[in-house]
Write a structure and sequence with these properties.
This protein is mainly beta. It has 1 helix and 12 strands. The two termini are about 30 Å apart. It comes from Salinimicrobium catena.
């Protein structure tokens, strides 16, 4: 790896680390809620006929701790178990159209919650000669109230060794519902991916979410991990 490449990677990592440090320092003096989560996902990708391929997965999320004004207000609580199916169509080499279905089992872990069913329409633009990837999503969430969400994700990825890569990204979300007030959210993430095992990708990352920042800001922090088996 040449010197310029190493310098570029170092600068990007330093910028992301500095961003999270600034956010973390600001939260110490914040009067808004802070929640800490652990999120895991296991998935399988396989090819269908022609330009179709499929992603099937199972994921889970647990609340580790919730704090307000520096004080702990709740402890560990498993939030949900989810099943995912994405049907993907390779329109062009850099363009993928997808239809996703997601079901979240929430009532299993909290009687006051209801299960959620979600339909997802997705457009992915991933140029082979550029490190940037664009993802556009429309979602319909069926729970206590039906919620429509609009999402745009911009991510950057670069190799750091033969089998490993570093990524950083941000995602903007906007949710509307006939029964609820609109909500805006912004997410920031960093992660590492390793593909040294045959047909298997391992991922670990950190994510920070500014929930409902326009009206009732809360901070959410995630430790994420993933295992993807590629049978294509």
């Amino acid at each position: 790896m040449n010197t310029n490449r190493m310098t570029s990677i170092f600068k990007n990592k330093t910028f992301i680390a500095l961003l999270f440090s600034i956010l973390g320092g600001d939260l110490v003096y914040s009067q808004t809620p802070e929640s800490y989560f652990l999120e895991n996902e296991v998935g399988i990708s396989f090819r269908g006929e022609g330009k179709l391929f499929y992603d099937v997965g199972v994921g889970s999320r647990a609340l580790l701790q919730e704090r307000f004004d520096g004080e702990k207000i709740s402890g560990y609580q498993h939030e949900h178990l989810e099943l995912n199916l994405f049907i993907n169509y390779l329109k062009k080499e850099i363009l993928v159209l997808s239809l996703g279905l997601r079901y979240r089992f929430r009532d299993l872990f909290d009687d006051s919650e209801t299960d959620e069913f979600r339909v997802i329409e997705q457009l992915l633009i991933d140029p082979a000669n550029l490190p940037l990837c664009h993802r556009f999503r429309l979602e319909q969430r069926f729970r206590e109230n039906m919620i429509h969400r609009f999402r745009y994700d911009l991510s950057y990825s670069t190799p750091i060794s033969q089998n490993s890569s570093f990524s950083a990204g941000t995602e903007a979300l906007y949710a509307v519902s006939p029964q609820l007030k609109p909500e805006a959210e912004q997410r920031f993430s960093i992660g590492l991916e390793n593909s040294s095992l045959r047909h298997i990708n391992l991922e670990i990352g950190l994510e920070y979410r500014m929930e409902n920042y326009a009206r009732n800001l809360s901070h959410e922090f995630f430790i994420t991990s993933g295992l993807q088996v590629n049978l294509q």
